[in-house]
Amino acid sequence: MIETILTFYIFVIMSAITKIHIYWMGGGVWPGTDKNDLINKVLGQGDVFPSLLSCIFVIIVFILMALFPLISYFKIDLGLINNYIEYFYLFFASILLLRSALVFIPNIENKVHKLFIIYNTKYYSPLCFSLFISYFVLYLKY
Questions:
Q1: Domain range holding 72?
Q2: What is the mean pLDDT of each run of 10 residues along the chain (142 residues)?
Q3: Which residues contact 102 (CB under 8 A, 6 or more apart)?
Q4: Calpha distance 142→137 (Å, rounded)
Q5: Could you give the C-alpha distances from 32 to 20, 41, 98, 126, in angstroms and in order?
Q6: How far is residue 112's CA from residue 117's CA, in Å, rounded to a whole number?
Q7: Is the pTM higher than 0.90?
Q8: What total of structural domains would you count in the chain?
Q9: Shortest CA distance to 48 belongs to which of 35, 59, 66?
Q10: Among residues 7, 29, 78, 114, which one has the fewest Cβ atoms lying within 10 Å of its Cβ?
């Protein structure tokens, strides 16, 4: 039961995050009001949005992160990869734990825009932590 809930939670959230990144790649600026505001809120610093290739790479990784729990849940045969499924769960969980811990890095306030700190504390870190817990529980259940 918990595996089902967590699998579909991850799929829905990671799919939504993927769609937001596709929207940004296409020139969208939400939650910002313009490109610079978007960079301040999402990236934290700089004045150049990531390249098309960088955006495509992130989107592909997020698609894999969204689909992987479904593939595992429905026991789709992936050949040799099936022997390492638990490590993929652990790897994804580790990435998300590190991302959620970004809020605790000392002196980060001096290196990034204040809007990023606000958004990171309110939205990004808690969301990443919930995804970390989900992947980690699936790792433990596997």
A1: 2-141
A2: 97 98 96 93 90 97 97 90 91 97 84 91 96 97 86
A3: 108, 120, 124, 125
A4: 9
A5: 12, 7, 25, 20
A6: 7
A7: yes
A8: 1
A9: 35
A10: 114
